[in-house]
Specification:
Order of helices and strands: HHHHEHEEHHEHHHEHEHEHEHHEH
CATH topology of the largest domain: TIM Barrel
Radius of gyration: 19 Å
Main location: cytoplasm
Oligomer: single chain
Subunit structure: Homodimer.
EC number: 4.1.1.37
Distance between the termini: 25 Å
Subcellular location: Cytoplasm
Number of domains: 2
Low-confidence stretches: none
Number of strands: 9
Largest sheet: 7 strands, parallel
Strand order of the largest sheet: 1-4-5-6-7-8-9
Bound molecules: coproporphyrinogen III
Structural class: alpha/beta
GO molecular function: uroporphyrinogen decarboxylase activity
Number of helices: 16
Helix content: 40-55%
Strand content: 5-15%
């Protein structure tokens, strides 16, 4: 086994951390914008296997990242379950809302998802054949809570208020949505692995808005169920969990879920991560994305600080969250050179 990401995920401490970047295929790259224009819009790009594979390859060609992440979106699963989905330019996703039993009953069964998602599996097959042999292919899905926040509100919200309200007022319905998404995520990820994904990552971008018992029930427990089921279906499959803004819950997340790697955002210091999280297994993160916009000496200093704090254990370098459209592609190169060149 030679791929650096897979070695780190198995617990090896490497002399130079492997590196990839959340949203590495995206609007900050001129070649992405060109391919997206060719596809027409974002969703057409996600469902066009040739072009989705092309934008996945772009950052690998330009930067030689150690991992490629399938180009798709966490909101394709609710669409496959029957929610309407569209993207408003400059604003983000919009979905039909699920706020009543009647809305829920209209959704399709999990067995129907492949009718919509099969082009995504074709993208994975193209990538699996076409990536350089040292590059690891990561598949992904949204975590049930994060996906549910969009399905319930019909859009992104600053505080996930509508999902918190449904959880409080119609708990049984809310839990049915989480259960359906947990089951759907397992099937969706399984198809990705069968098509060639070597690692899966579960994005729980809004995990931090769940407090106390709610975090355990609706972030940690679904991550555990998904991780355990994926590992029983595909023995040895590495799983990366990203309970963003998990705070103190990051500490026990490896043990509680069985994830091989816990990805951390930049609201926690790398020193804290080394002491409290990395002692339990591989970690991934956590340079602030703003450095990809601002660059310069700050970028170099902060990149070195993150690497210095985390290089003594199993570690994958990444940002704390996705790179933003206003980032400068040259700053990405500077970050990579700093990680690889010292
Ligand atoms: C919450 C969430 C979504 N999608 C995703 C998350 C979880 C991670 C996170 O917290 O960022 C995950 C995601 N979205 C995308 C990927 C592809 C792989 C990658 O390069 O990381 C991944 C892994 C492409 C995308 N997904 C989206 C884009 C931009 C679309 C475009 O080209 O216009 C990309 C490249 C659109 C998207 N998709 C989503 C939103 C809120 C938006 C709009 C925000 C924005 O415009 O940046 C939902």
């Amino acid at each position: 086994m030679t791929k650096t990401i897979l070695r780190a995920l198995k617990g090896e401490t490497l002399p130079t951390p492997p590196i990839w970047m959340m949203r590495q295929a995206g609007r900050y790259l001129p070649e992405y914008r060109a391919t997206r224009a060719e596809a027409g819009d974002f969703l057409s790009l996600c469902y066009n296997p040739e072009l989705a594979a092309e934008v996945t390859f772009q950052p690998i060609r330009r930067y030689g990242f150690d991992a490629a992440i399938l180009f798709a979106d966490i909101l394709l699963l609710p669409q496959a379950l029957g929610a309407d989905l569209w993207f408003v330019t400059g604003e983000g996703p919009r979905l039909s809302t699920i706020t009543s039993e009647a809305d829920f009953e209209k959704l399709k069964p999990v067995s129907a998802i492949d009718d919509t998602l099969s082009p995504v599996y074709e993208t994975v097959r193209i990538l699996s054949k076409g990536l350089p042999e040292e590059t690891t292919l990561i598949g992904f899905a949204g975590a049930p809570w994060t996906v549910a926040t969009y399905m319930i509100a019909g859009k992104g919200t600053p505080d996930q208020g509508p999902a918190h309200a449904l959880k409080a007022e119609k708990t049984a319905l809310f839990e049915k949505i989480i259960a359906l998404l947990t089951e759907g995520t397992i099937e969706y990820l399984s198809r990705q692995v069968e098509a060639g994904a070597e690692v899966v990552k579960i994005f729980d971008s809004w995990a931090g808005s769940l407090k106390g018992d709610d975090f355990i029930k609706y972030a940690q427990e679904p991550a555990r169920i998904i991780t355990q089921e994926m590992k029983s279906r595909f023995p040895g499959l590495p799983v990366i969990a990203f309970p963003r803004q998990g705070g103190d819950f990051y500490k026990g997340f490896h043990a509680a879920t069985g994830a091989d790697c816990v990805a951390v955002d930049d609201s926690v210091s790398p020193e804290w991560v080394a002491e409290n999280v990395q002692i339990h297994g591989c970690v991934q993160g956590n340079l602030a994305s703003k450095h990809m916009v601002t660059g310069g000496e700050d970028l170099v200093r902060e990149t070195r600080a993150v690497v210095d704090a985390l290089k003594h254990g199993p570690y994958i370098f990444n940002l704390g969250h996705g790179i933003t459209p206003d980032a400068d592609p040259e700053n990405v190169q500077l970050m990579i050179d700093t990680v690889r060149g010292g």
